[in-house]
Amino acid sequence: MSFSVALAQIKPKLGCVRENLETIAQQVERAVREGASLIVFPELALTGYFLKDLVPEVALNLSSPEIAKLKELSKNISIAVGFVEASSDYRFYNAAIYLEGGEIKHVHRKVYLPTYGLFDEQRYLAQGNRFRAFDTRFGRMGFLLCEDMWHLPSSYILAMDGASTILCLASSPGRGLTNEENLSTTDVWQKLVFTTAMFLNERVLFCNRVGFEDGVNFWGGSEIVEPCGASIARGKMLEEDFLIASLDEGALRRARIYSPLMRDENLFITMKELHRVERERDC
C-alpha cells in the first residue's frame, strides 16, 4: 500500500535515555501532525553510540517503562527506533524495534558488530544471529543496522524473505575525503543504498544520526530511495533534519515489472552453490 514516512535525523545525547526518549516523543508528535504513517529513527537513538561501559546502564528489556512509552506512542503512528536491548540472560544487543498499533511487531539484533578503525562494538555487545522480514500494515519489511547493510547477503536474505522495504538505521561517522572533497562515507553509503534498492527492487529508508561523540562527527544524509534507485528525499549534512515523503505502491509495481530481478532470482541455485562452497571449505 502507499504510505507517508518520516525520517528523524536527530542528535542523541550519550547515555541520556530519558532525554532521548523525550526527543523521540517530540519527533513522533511532529510526524503525526504532518500526516506521516511511519517514523524512522537512527541506530541507538535512545542511547547514543559510543557507550562502552555505559551499555549495562542504558540497556532496556522489552517490558521496561521506556518501551511501554514507545508502545503508547505507536498507537498513532508506526515507529522504528534503535536502542540497547537487555536479554533475560543478561546479554546486551544493539537492537532495532518496530512498534505499531501499541504493540511490538519485531526486534532485530545487529548481526555484524564492527571492530575495525574507530569501532569496538563486539567488546561491549552480543551478536545477533538472524535476518527476518516481518509484516506491517504497509507490507513486509526488514531491519538492517548500519554495518549489517555492508554485508550484501543481509539485504538479499530480507528480499528473499519477502521484504519490499528495508529500514536501515545507522550511526555512521564521517571519514575520509573523495577527490571532489565530499566525505568518503557519504559517497559509499549513497552508492550502497542506490544499489540495494535498484537490484533488489526494494524501497530503502536510510536514517543516519548527526552530532559529535568522543570527537567523532556523525554526518546525517538520511535518505528515502524508491525501488528503481531514485532518491526522493535526502537529509542535510552534519545537522539535524526531518524528512517526510509519500511512498507510492505504484512505484514498487512499476520497478518490479520493468526490472523483474526478484521474480527471476533462483534461490535453489544460490543455496546449492553456497552449500557446495561450505563443503569444499571444510575439506
What does this structure look like?
With 283 residues, this protein is of the alpha/beta class. Helix content is 32%, strand content 28%. The protein has a single domain (3-282), classed as Nitrilase/N-carbamoyl-D-aminoacid amidohydrolase (4-Layer Sandwich). It has helices spanning 17-33, 55-58, 65-73, 121-124, 152-160, 184-200, 249-258, 261-264, 267-282; strands spanning 3-9, 38-40, 78-86, 92-100, 103-109, 134-136, 139-145, 165-170, 203-208, 210-213, 216-219, 223-225, 231-234, 241-247. The strands form three sheets. A six-stranded mixed β-sheet has the order 5-4-3-2-1-14. Strands 6-7-8-9-12-13 form a six-stranded mixed β-sheet, covered by helices on one side. A hairpin with a 5-residue loop joins strand 3 (78-86) and strand 4. The radius of gyration is 18 Å and the shape is globular.
Question: Strands across the major sheet, in which order?
Answer: 5-4-3-2-1-14
* Helix vs. strand class: alpha/beta
- Level-2 CATH architecture: 4-Layer Sandwich
* CATH third-tier fold name: Nitrilase/N-carbamoyl-D-aminoacid amidohydrolase
> For this structure, what is the CATH homologous superfamily?
Carbon-nitrogen hydrolase
Q: What is the overall pLDDT average?
A: 96
Radius of gyration: 18 Å
Number of strands: 14
- The CATH first-level class comes to Alpha Beta
Quaternary structure annotation: single chain
Number of domains: 1
| Biggest beta sheet summary | 6 strands, mixed
Please provide the ordered H/E string of secondary-structure elements.
EHEHHEEEHEEHEHEEEEEEHHH
**Strand proportion:** 25-35%
| Outline type | globular
User: How widely separated are the two ends?
Assistant: 48 Å
